Amino acid sequence: MLENFNAYLDKRLGLRKCRDDVCQKYSIKHSGSGLWALPDIKRAYGKTQRLCTTTKKDGLSVILVKQILQHEHKCETDRLERENKAEKAKVRALAEQLQNLKAHKERLEKENNKLLTLISKQLESKSSSSFVDSEADLSINTCVHDPVNSKIRLAPVIVKHRRTNVEIDNEEGYEDSGERRTRTVTKVVKKYVPYRTYHPATPEQVDKWSKELPDVYKQPRKVWQFLQRLQKIYILHPLDGVMILNVTLRDSDQKRLTESVERRIGESQENIEDGWEAIKNFLFELKPAEVNWARITSCMQKTGESVAEFEERFRHIWTEHSGLNTSEDLDKDTGIPLKTAFVNGLNPEISKDLKIRYDDWDSTVTTFIQIVEWSAKLERAQDVRLRSLQSKSLFYKNRTIEDEQKEREYMGYSKLRTKGRCRNCNEEGHWARECKLSLKHQSQDDDHLFKQFQQLTIQQK
């Protein structure tokens, strides 16, 4: 409809010829589609406003309106094209990023599979090669997840079914001298028996934990405490601990530790406690226990350090320098040296209160964990007292400040009250009783009365 209207105007008003005349007159260069540049439109509009002839002015106005509408349409079209190009560029960038992430993920999965294969080959014992698994080995328990994708493993052991030779005792009857008797016969049959096998930790976990591990040869007891904490949190298998330690051990020590642990846990890999005991014995053999009482007695609670933090630091120092190889039974230990060293290392105020309030702290019945709990209780009571004293001092301080402000306000009010207007001299700044003029008149009156009194006394004489 708009095109028909434009064609009608061009034919009726002769706008085409008028447009050509305007372009020739004002040297306007238009594009192939007939669009003018914006400066040309502004110049033509200014010329149109200065025309006196109404007919030419109307024709040029129509031409300018058409040019302005076409210019706006072109601007809108260009804006939409730019937005479309920007969106397409974003889509291409996201597609490239997705492809890169996919390729990176595939590469990581391949590396993880290679590492898992190498680790499983290293951990396989020679005896396990003699067993031939049947097709039932593929039926793994569905509750076990892929260790590559799981961040925290919930179970270090999985259950499989293996066809093995099993001895079964059966009773069979036979005749002896015409009498019916029974005897026990042991038969060997093949049967699918469930057994537990080791499921190793992921390479990412082993790499992460090995980096957090202390020096094995300098602090073996601290390493054992670290492994104990990991075992409680992640339910680790002894062979997991072996893999973590092998990252930092020498080749000869790696072989000795692996053989010792595999021998203790057995082929069924069910003797988990014995495996951890083998790891502990190996670590404690790396560095013999040493006694350094100077290091223990110099362990003191620092300023701003809580009782719990001091207890953890004291446990490490006691385990390293007390000459003992075990630290599991420290909570139940009732030894006097341990308790005395801990109490003397506490904050002097807490140590003094502990000895006064709990006079049986050094008895053979009191355990180390009881002393730790008492110390934490006294620390909390001391913190409560300090907070109450701070609140009281802050209250009195605020009260003193308020009193000073009130006194300052009262003094200012009293000063304002002293500034009044005197009724004698009609001046501001003092009252009538303080007026100097009234005091002067009063002194003159007093002198006059004194003179009259003297005259009366003389007359009476």
Automatic annotation (TrEMBL):
Any one GO molecular-function label of the UniProt entry: zinc ion binding
Species: Danio rerio (Zebrafish)
PROSITE patterns: ZF_CCHC (PS50158)
Protein name, entry field: Uncharacterized protein YF-50
This protein's record includes keyword Disulfide bond: no
Assigned keywords, A-Z: Coiled coil, Metal-binding, Zinc, Zinc-finger
Domain CCHC-type: 421-436
Gene: znfl1
Top-rank taxon, per record: Eukaryota
Pfam families xref list: zf-CCHC
InterPro entries, sorted: Znf_CCHC (IPR001878), Znf_CCHC_sf (IPR036875)
GO biological process assignments: hindbrain development
Coiled-coil ranges per UniProt: 77-125
